[in-house]
Amino acid sequence: MHTLLAPAVALLNRLSFRGKFTIIILCVLIALAGLGGSLGAALWGEVRHTRNEQAGVATLVPTLHAVQMIQQHRGQMVSVLSGKPELKPRADETAAQADRWLDKADAALAASPTLSGTATGWTAVRKDWKDLVISGGSLDAAASRIAHRKVIEALLAHAKAVISASGLLLDTEAGSFYMIDATLDALPELIERIGKMRATGNLLLSRKTGSDQEREDLTVLMATAEAEYRKVIQKLRRASEGHPEIVTSIAALESGTGPHLA
């Protein structure tokens, strides 16, 4: 140890008191600068992560609203193509609402360089939706349902990509993680399964008949929807740990929706 410090001791012995004091102050300032730089980098990382999360939410909200509108449009167009043309104006208005939400999602994506990696899939799904709106009236009810399903599944896949790119699921707090996972990832998937059940049911009711395969598909959708529903409730329960006000809301949600799926 003395050998290692010998050069420093020799240097300090040659300096005056002012010189020694200056050297010590410089060493302290260098140490403080290092600590400040490390702290600043950590804080900037937190700020950047928060901004990315905000950009993700700003994009996901209109995207999921658009999914909801397209799900409604699917049901309306199935009815229109099954012999209820009077519902066409309502379907057109729903499509226009979906376009408005998609435009808002477009703006949010353009404002966030972090999400630029999701742009290719987004451009493709917007084109598919535009083509469906233009040519959807010439399809039969079953083909329309399938075309809508593809667009919705692509939008949900895009939503997952946004969640990944924005780091929304990287929250270090368990409660926040489970709440985000349940509401922004699992719940939209559950709603789409229920939407598929509704669209399939409307198609069968409009035809007043259905094949064995269609009945089997509907039964599978019901079973998988219930399984997904249980997963959502489980995640919400984990998110509510330590939050009694959320526990009450989740209990009310489960009691109000569970029997309908069971």
Kindly describe this structure:
With 262 residues, the chain is an all-alpha fold. 85% of the residues lie in helices and 0% in strands. The chain contains 8 helices and no strands. The chain has helices spanning 2-14, 17-81, 88-110, 119-135, 141-166, 174-207, 212-239, 244-261. The radius of gyration is 29 Å and the shape is elongated. The termini are far apart. The mean pLDDT is 82.
Write the layout of secondary structure elements.
Elements lengths: L1 H13 L2 H65 L6 H23 L8 H17 L5 H26 L7 H34 L4 H28 L4 H18 L1
Question: What's the quick description here?
Answer:
The protein is mainly α and about 260 residues long.
The portion of residues forming beta strands comes to under 5%
Instruction: Please state the average pLDDT score.
Output: 82
SS-based structural class?
mainly alpha
Radius of gyration: 29 Å
DSSP summary: helix tally? 8
Q: Strand-and-helix sequence, N→C?
A: HHHHHHHH
* Head-to-tail CA distance between termini: 74 Å
Give the tally of β-strands. 0
- What helical percentage do the residues reach? over 70%
Low-confidence stretches: none
Based on Cα principal axes, name the global outline.
elongated
The main sheet comes to: none
Observed structural traits:
mainly alpha, 8 helices, elongated, 85% helix, 262 residues, single chain
